[in-house]
Amino acid sequence: MANFIIETSARHVHVTREALDILFGEGFELEVKKELSQPGQFATNQKVEVVGPKSSLKCSILGPCRPETQVELSFTDARTVGIVAPIRESADIAGSAPCKIVGPCGEVEISEGVIAAKRHIHFTPADAEEFGVSDKQIVSVKINSERTTVYGDVVIRVSEKFAPAMHIDTDEANAACAFGEIYGTVIG
After folding, report:
1. Which tens digits make up the pLDDT trace of 155-173?
2. pTM, rounded to two decimals
3. How crowded is residue 28: how many other Cβ atoms within 10 Å of its Cβ?
4. Distance in angstroms (rounded) separating the CA atoms of residues 177 and 132
């Protein structure tokens, strides 16, 4: 069976243009630190403080700007700051948790937008065909590591704009010992 890369998605923030102006100053542009595996997506040099009822954490901003401000935390991160983050697909933030985001020039209070990202696989249509899966299908994935793990409830996301990769958060990566170049296989 064919394999695909497993990538760990650490805590991060996506911001709107308006939020970026408040946090870093009018007209500020995100600085590319590193291109990510998904085309057009990048880690930036900019960090913000995500503030919850108990404490706060520094988080990197991922670019480019998005239509909605969103914070993605692992459950460990969420508990640390005192936020109950629901498991959601990216951009599905309706009714999710609130927080305050603090930057060097200002702060933004979001009434919703904090989530624990649902584990998912990015595929192009050709990849999906090769693996025999379709968009929004839920599958199980065997992670081939020192601590072989099978994760269920993995959503397939298909778009011409994607590159093949499975994304899990830091809690999931630690549990599966998914460090370095690790691959997964769709099973069942």
Report:
1. 999 999 999 999 999 999 9
2. 0.94
3. 16
4. 27
pLDDT tier at 1 (50, 70, 90 boundaries)?
low
Of 30, 52, 46, 150, the C-alpha closest to 97 is: 52
Report how far apart, in Å, the C-alpha atoms of 123 and of each of 7, 67, 90, 118, 170 are. Answer: 14, 23, 15, 16, 21
- Going by C-alpha positions, the residue among 139, 174, 173, 188 that lies closest to residue 5 is 173
Closest CA to 17 of 58, 49, 64, 70: 64
pLDDT tens digit string along 16-67? 999 999 999 999 999 999 999 999 999 999 999 999 999 999 999 999 999 9
Contact assessment for residue 99 and residue 51, using Cβ atoms and an 8 Å cutoff: yes
Cα–Cα dist 12/70, whole Å = 9
**Which candidate, 172, 181, 184, places its Cα nearest to that of 141?**
184
pLDDT for 95-115, tens place per residue? 999 999 999 999 999 999 999
The dihedral built from the CA positions of residue 127, 149, 62 and 78, taken in this order, carries a sign that is positive
Q: What is the DSSP letter of 126?
A: H
CA atoms of 38 and 124, how far apart (whole Å):
11
